[in-house]
Design a protein that fits this description.
This protein has a single domain, classed as FAD/NAD(P)-binding domain (3-Layer(bba) Sandwich), CATH 3.50.50. It is globular. About 6% of the residues have low confidence. By secondary structure, it is of the alpha+beta class.
Length: 412
């Protein structure tokens, strides 16, 4: 294997070209920084693990971020607005509803397939001529004076790159996070999400459904072309059985768990399985390294907050870098004070969302009678309390104690 003798220098290297890493690269484009994106898989329209058949409910804050980086116009035609949210508990009396109209909004969020977001992001990367090193694999991370150095393998050659700041956006099992000495914890929920889409007898009317069942939560999300996205969480030991069912068996079992709010389920697409865990980095930075997206926290999909939180990670860092580049006489993307501020900001937001999501998982996994009664009473109370609905709507829109400018629709 050949080794290049020249070391290429950057202000910032983003390791991981998934939804969060690619978005960060586009956010930083107006700042005039020397940025490169390192990605293990060359995007060719399909096959990237981040750009699969899963669907994501984007908050209004995430929509504004995508609008700012020129991605939303590419998604707007096929993005499906969520105008109402309906939450229920199978076999119990409790339910809760949220309405965009009641909140004075056009939509509570937008449902977009991940592969469409990936295609739009990579189109914009090409249009903006952002340097992408792919397929490339990081094989070593080291420290050199006031920079970090990475050795990457690309096209059978080892190449040295140095940067003031390394961004680890390389997923839940982040190698960069480990190489930087950032520990992580993992909690296996012993659940697997079965993902598919379906055609229903009735039009979805832009309603997103979340339903809690004894086996685990399920969601039905509105999609374009009158289809719906299905997310069915089952105990991991039953996942192989569910995948092995015929289409007719699957539709019958899902119908029994979901009910007939959309009439009969007529047809189902291919099914895919994703084991669910809570993975959290113990801190959001190390010297000249930050973690974001799934490298910082991978969440249960029960509340649909994972990507929205990751995009706020990216928007927060972009904002701090933009401010520093304007104010500092000598700009250093890896300045310790800047990274400490990033870590504090993200820790607060992450802790809030992780606690909310994990509490929901635990609460609705409990099958004790008194707990089931209490949570259903809580759902009914929530449905009758405007202040509680306002708070939940704010959460669904990605609101936090400090919202990044891009998520508010304000330029950097």
């Amino acid at each position: 294997m050949n080794t290049s003798s020249d070391t290429q220098s950057y202000d910032l290297l983003i390791c991981g070209g998934g939804l969060v890493g690619a978005s960060l690269a586009l956010m930083l484009r107006p700042l005039g920084l020397r940025v490169a994106l390192i990605e293990a898989i060359k995007f060719e329209g399909a096959g990237h693990p981040s750009f699969d058949e899963r669907t994501t409910a984007l908050s209004n804050g995430s929509r504004r971020v995508f609008d700012a980086i020129g991605v939303w116009p590419l998604l707007q035609r096929t993005a499906t607005p969520i105008k109402r949210i309906h939450v229920s508990d199978q076999g119990r009396f409790g339910f809760a509803r949220l309405s965009a109209q009641e909140q004075g909004l056009a939509a509570l969020g937008y449902v977009v397939p991940n592969w469409q977001m990936g295609a739009a992001l990579w189109q914009r990367l090409q249009e903006e001529q952002i340097e992408v090193l792919a397929p490339a694999r990081v094989v070593q991370l080291s420290t050199a004076d006031d920079t970090r150095r990475v050795t990457i393998e690309i096209a059978g050659e080892l190449r040295e790159c140095s940067a003031r700041l390394i961004v680890a956006a390389d997923g839940a099992q982040s190698l960069l996070r480990q190489a930087a000495g950032i520990d992580s914890t993992q909690q296996d929920y012993r659940q697997t999400a079965i993902i598919s889409n379906a055609l229903t007898q009735r039009f979805h009317d832009h309603v997103a459904y979340e339903r809690f069942t004894p086996k685990g939560p399920l969601a039905v999300l509105p999609l374009s072309d009158a289809r719906v996205g299905l997310i069915w969480t089952v105990p991991t030991e039953q996942a192989a059985t569910v995948l092995g069912w015929s289409d007719e068996q699957f539709l019958s079992q899902f119908q029994q768990a979901f009910g007939f709010r959309l009439g009969r389920l007529l047809k189902v697409g291919a099914r895919h399985a994703y084991p669910l865990s809570l993975i959290r980095a113990q801190q959001h930075h190390a010297p000249r390294v930050v973690v974001m997206g799934n490298a910082a926290q991978m969440l249960h999909p029960i509340a649909g907050q994972g990507l929205n939180l990751g995009l706020r990670d990216a928007a927060s860092l972009a904002e701090l870098l933009a401010d520093a580049s304007r104010e500092a006489s000598v700009f250093d993307a890896g300045d310790p004070q800047l990274l400490a501020e990033y870590a504090q900001w993200r820790q607060q937001d992450s802790q809030r969302i992780v606690t909310f999501t994990d509490t929901l998982v635990r609460l609705f996994n409990q099958q004790l009678g008194v707990i089931k009664f209490a949570r259903n009473a809580g759902l009914l109370a929530f449905d009758l309390m405007p202040t509680a609905k306002d708070a939940m709507a704010q959460l669904s829109m990605g609101a936090s104690t400090r919202i990044p400018r891009l998520a508010r629709g304000t330029p950097l």
